[in-house]
Amino acid sequence: MTQPYDPAADGAQMTFDKDMSYGDYLHLDAVLTAQHPISDAPDELLFIIQHQTSELWMKLALHELRAARADLAQGQTRPAFKRLTRTARVFEQLNSAWDVLRTMTPSDYTTFRASLGRSSGFQSHQYREIEFILGNRNPAMIRPHAHQPAIAERLEAELAKPSLYDMAVRLLAQKVDVPVRALDRDLRVPHQPDEALQAAWAQVYADPAAYWDLYELAEKLVDLEDYFRRWRFNHVTTVERVIGLKRGTGGTSGASYLKRMLEVELFPDLWHLRTAL
Q1: How many CA within 13 A on the CB side of residue 101?
Q2: pLDDT digits (tens, 9 = 90+) for 57-108
């Protein structure tokens, strides 16, 4: 008779009264007890975990985006490329999460939606900070966080910093002529299409071998926005599937608001230049 496998026989540590365990390192007691449904609806746990895990992925995205911006500020494009690739894959993970949430039907959601009160994903300060770093900036979006001064101050501080795309344009200006207005713009406003900037990027695309780092940087940014757009689209689809055209719990117009957000371009020059290539 085969004896049951004993991991200790292979050297696996089996006692942790004096050493740090897996659960200790990850603080799983705190993580796994952070879900507090306030209704008896079975699907509320799914809803909570979906949003908590999304916030964890966004925390990682912010970490990588800040590092990528710092790398670009120092002219370190190669490390920045790795950070941007990782961030794009984070949004791929966020996209996959919608597939799980869409298993919740309208009937399931209505059993606990009223329990959410006025809370809404619209109020995610991490999502707002991601948008600000990527260049979609609107000071009005800080108001929902006025009751948390530290968060509001962090968002205000972000508006004073160059966006990720601003850093890319500064690198572009080291190799190609760009308009002064692109380097001395109001950092608190979103990026708008600029034909002169598109012409500058077009020089890069016309001769990738001569401007390889800029060429790859542009494509990394496009790749990131591609995944970001897919996340937004899947968000709209999920909302329409679950609540139709109802208003959002936070007071937005729901799917209609999210559809307007689909029109936002984070790096408009990198998209518009393609028409003229």
Answers
A1: 25
A2: 999 999 999 999 999 999 999 999 999 999 999 999 999 999 999 999 999 9
Residue 187 in contact with residue 160, Cβ under 8 Å? yes
> Strand, coil or helix: what is 244?
coil
Task: Provide the whole-model pTM.
Answer: 0.93
Which residues have CB under 8 Å from 185's CB, separation 6+? 166
Q: What is the DSSP letter of 14?
A: -
Distance (Å, whole) CA 113 – CA 248: 10
CA quadruple 193, 267, 62, 74: dihedral positive or negative? Answer: negative
CATH architecture of 42-109+123-276: Up-down Bundle (1.20)
φ, ψ for residue 69, nearest 5 deg: -65, -40
Which residues neighbour 77 within 8 Å (Cβ) at sequence distance 6 or greater? Answer: 71, 171, 213, 216, 217
Distance of alpha carbon 132 from alpha carbon 57, whole angstroms: 17
